[in-house]
Amino acid sequence: MPHVEMNFDGLVGPTHNYAGLSYGNVASLNNAKGISHPKQAAKQGLVKMKTLADLGISQGVLAPQARPDVNVLRRLGFTGNDAQVINKAAKSDPILLSACYSASSMWTANAATVSPSADTADGKVHFTPANLTNKFHRSIEPETTGRILKATFNDSNIFEHHAHLPENDHFGDEGAANHTRFCEGYEQPGVELFVYGRHAFNTAKPAPKKFPARQTIEASQAVARLHGLDEHNTVFALQNPDVIDQGVFHNDVISVGNQNVLFYHEQAFAHTEQVLAEIQRKMGQTHMHFIQVPTEAVSINDAVKSYLFNTQIITLPNGDMAIIAPTEAQDNEAVNQYLTTLPHLNTPIKQVKFIDVKQSMQNGGGPACLRLRVALKEHELLAINPHTQITNNKFIELNQWVDKHYRDELSIADLADPNLLNESQTALDELTQILQLGSVYPFQLV
Ligand code: SUG
Fold first, then answer.
1. Distance (Å, rounded) from C-alpha 144 to C-alpha 441?
2. Separation of CA 413 and ligand 1 centre (Å)
3. How far apart are CA 266 and CA 134, in angstroms?
4. Is 174 a catalytic residue?
5. Within a domain: residue 120?
6. Does 95 reside within a domain?
7. Lowest mean pLDDT: which of 2-6, 17-21, 184-188?
8. pLDDT above 80 for 2
9. Is 3 a catalytic residue?
10. Could you confirm whether 100 is annotated as catalytic?
């Protein structure tokens, strides 16, 4: 196997809950305060990883974050031992407590932006954790994300890890959710598409009116600079502000790419023709397949509900592409009809596979949100921490670990229970041994 694009899925953490924290994300708001099922959520995620591994795709796992984040609660003035901090926060600000409990790090498309070595000036694979400034519960992820990435890609001759961008909305960065890469073969130089929702320093430019644009062009440009990309291998595209206002809070809710394919909704970008022309020009000899889904086939509302574009397009070992869609896409009549015809159109996509990630979907996280893509050459693949790869044994071991530590159900009221912190820390401490990550969590660093 000379080169691959690996998917690193986020393992759903033990405190998975529905707190309604993401204004602009329709599913998160609709399911606010519902009962969550952490054990089922983690198992759905593991089955997804195993399904891809069984299809012949290299699959890895990224550890979740330690929650609740008691250090943040302390920074915000809650005092005493861990149990007292939680008790006090539960009484005086339960919404803040739920934010500090969020298992949102499962959506590893937001963990970082990754540029493969074929694209970067120094020939290293570059990682920049996303600062996620737009949502408080997510803005507390990047430091631990950085440590988990370093423990997973732990060879500094091969992997370059940057600090997350300055923590201000001007540099709001949501990572790979707004980034996709086109290439002929994964090991060959590609073109990286950065999609942004607004200009921070130039407020005269178009921007959504209702929901926030989480990604700025300033952030996208900074990441490209850090990664040693330049004009010839980058395209910056403005997301259509009107669709952000309809619930498309990340570009990966409205478009997805793989190799020479861009699968996108007609309304995804502000200047579609220009964007497509620039991608094709920069791809040179490689013929791009631009698969446009018209509004008359699938409305924005159906796209947002079904996550048709939050699918993973993967290249199977035989060279065909498959689309991995959530079962919600099958349940939606218009979308299911579209997906039934897609393999018969003249495109590289030949198969559709549905997977059940409902627990994540109810917080607005589909198959593509749950994974971070890392294109790797053979020697780079060998340099990854091998314990983070999903094999049959690792799948069994992680399922046993979930069975041992996770609750079946969690309500928002349950978050007031300090035992949940102990359970979570015990589980994660054991996980760092299973994945051989060393000490990555704040509670392990003291
Ligand atoms: O940031 N939901 C996440 C979903 C992220 C999806 N990622 C991508 N599209 N790549 C978010 O909005 C909801 C948490 C809550 O409400 O409990 C949440 O954080």
1. 7
2. 21
3. 26
4. yes
5. yes
6. no
7. 2-6
8. no
9. no
10. no
Q: What is the pLDDT of residues 207-266, one digit of tens each?
A: 999 999 999 999 999 999 999 999 999 999 999 999 999 999 999 999 999 999 999 999
Q: Look-up: residue for tokens 């929702």? A: 197
Instruction: Tell me how far the alpha carbon of residue 240 lies from the centroid of ligand 1, in angstroms.
Output: 20
pLDDT tens readout for residues 174-211: 999 999 999 999 999 999 999 999 999 998 999 999 99
Of the residues 5, 141, 174, 192, only one is catalytic, namely 174
Answer whether 20 contacts ligand 1 (Cβ < 6 A).
yes
- Does ligand 1 come within 6 angstroms of the Cβ of 22? yes
CA-based nearest residue to 210, from 238, 240, 245, 249: 245
What value, to the nearest 5°, has the Cα angle with vertex 263 and ends 11 and 10?
A: 5
d(CA 427, CA 415) in angstroms, rounded, equals: 17
* pTM (two decimals): 0.98
Q: Is 367 in the pocket of ligand 1 (CB under 6 A)?
A: no
> In the chain, what is the straight-line distance between the N-terminal and C-terminal CA atoms, in Å?
41
- Could you give the CA distance from residue 88 to residue 250 in angstroms, rounded to a whole number? 35
Angstrom distance (rounded) from CA 53 to CA 139:
31
Query: Is 236 a member of any domain?
Result: yes
pLDDT at 1 over 70: no
pLDDT beyond 90 at 80: yes
* CA-CA-CA-CA torsion sign (10, 418, 31, 38): positive
**Checking DSSP bridges between strand 3-10 and strand 371-377, what pairing results, if any?**
antiparallel
Structural domain boundaries enclosing 386: 4-67+102-444
| Residue written as token pair 């195993």 | 50
Ligand 1 pocket, residue 211 CB under 6 Å? no
Question: Where is 291: in which H helix or E strand?
Answer: strand 289-293
Report the CATH number that the domain containing residue 404 is assigned in CATH.
Answer: 3.75.10.20
User: Which amino acid residue places its CA nearest to atom 6 of ligand 1?
Assistant: 365
Q: Is the CB of 28 under 6 A from ligand 1?
A: yes
Would you say residue 94 lies in a domain? no
Q: CA-CA distance, 153 to 8, in Å (whole number)?
A: 11
Q: Are 161 and 145 spatial neighbours (Cβ–Cβ below 8 Å)?
A: no
DSSP 319-357: S-EEEEEEHHHHHSHHHHHHHHHGGGSSSSEEEEEEE--
Q: How far apart are CA 221 and CA 336, in angstroms?
A: 37
* Rounded distance between C-alpha atoms, residue 113 and residue 174, angstroms: 8
- Number of structural domains found in the chain: 1
